[in-house]
Specification:
Helices cover 75% and strands 0% of the residues. By secondary structure, the chain is mainly alpha-helical. It has a single domain, classed as MetI-like (MetI-like fold, Orthogonal Bundle), CATH 1.10.3720.10. The longest helix has 37 residues, at 69-105. 41% of the residues are buried.
Length: 281
């Protein structure tokens, strides 16, 4: 049996991975479908039809401006996917590069990278977004940059810690004795052996990015009108809590299920990719 077949055989029996994968797939499907179809244009305003209850015409009803809730939720999933992919990508690429550099060079280079990571941790995504917004103005791009910057030290620490363990292995010592340089060893031996924890962290950071984007949009620092956003839907719903409480429930449930699905999938991947835990299954 190949490694891939063995992985998927164990994955199908792992409840956390199955549930998380299903919820994550639903998020991706919603974003993909909204690229081609939505019941109504998400920004279309229909004041006479505002605050309608769920019906055949509007599956989840309409908001205070008559916009279709279903359409906003579907298109809002695009923002979550875009922010998650790009912000995690920024953290993954830059963070892994810095972590591997620190592990390969050691000494003052490692100390510099780690202290820079500590400094970056002092500026969480929300604070970074506030600073960037004050300079450049609010928007989706600023949210992505702020969340991406926060992810860099996360991946740098994981990459550095995992890479240090790999550098202590016998096969790396043999590669150095054979004349391989630090960068060749990093590419050939270190990166393949630290991929598992990085994949797990990427799925968890994806969930954190979705939550952070929703929080920034809720505060008016993220996605700007008329582009739909789950966080801004929550912000707009708070003025209608007594008239139409479901307006807050729908985006809240969407955020909860997306974050839950990605976290469960991350937990499942951690178990499946850990050799010790894998042998028990």
């Amino acid at each position: 049996m190949s490694l891939a077949q063995g992985f998927w055989r164990r994955a199908r029996r792992h409840p956390s991975f199955v549930v998380g994968g299903a919820l994550s797939a639903a998020l991706a499907l919603a974003a993909f479908v909204s690229l081609f179809w939505s019941p109504y244009p998400p920004a279309e305003i229909d004041i006479p039809g505002k605050l309608q209850a769920p019906s055949a015409a509007h599956w989840l009803g309409t908001d205070s401006l008559g916009r279709d809730i279903t359409s906003q939720l579907l298109v809002g999933a695009q923002n979550s996917i875009v922010v998650g992919v790009i912000a995690v990508g920024i953290g993954l690429v830059i963070g892994v590069a810095l972590g591997c550099l620190a592990s390969a060079r050691r000494g003052w280079v490692e100390e510099l990278v780690m202290r820079a990571s500590d400094f970056t941790f002092a500026f969480p995504a929300l604070l970074s977004a506030i600073m960037l917004t004050a300079i450049y103005g609010p928007g989706l791009v600023m949210s992505i940059v702020a969340i991406g910057i926060f992810n860099i030290p996360v991946f740098a620490r994981i990459a550095r810690g995992s890479a240090n363990a790999v550098w202590a292995r016998e096969y790396v010592t043999a590669a150095r004795a054979a004349g391989k340089g630090p960068w060749r060893i990093t590419v050939d031996h270190v990166l393949p052996n630290i991929a598992s924890p990085l994949i797990v962290q990427a799925s968890i950071s994806f969930a954190t990015a979705i939550l952070a984007e929703a929080a920034l949009s809720y505060l008016g620092l993220g996605t700007q009108p008329p582009q739909p956003s789950w966080g801004r839907m929550l912000n707009e719903a708070q003025t209608q809590m007594f008239q139409a409480p479901l307006l807050a429930v729908y985006p809240g449930v969407a955020i909860m299920l997306s974050v839950l699905g990605l976290n469960l999938m991350g937990d499942g991947l951690r178990d499946l990719l850990d050799p010790k835990l894998a042998r028990r299954r």
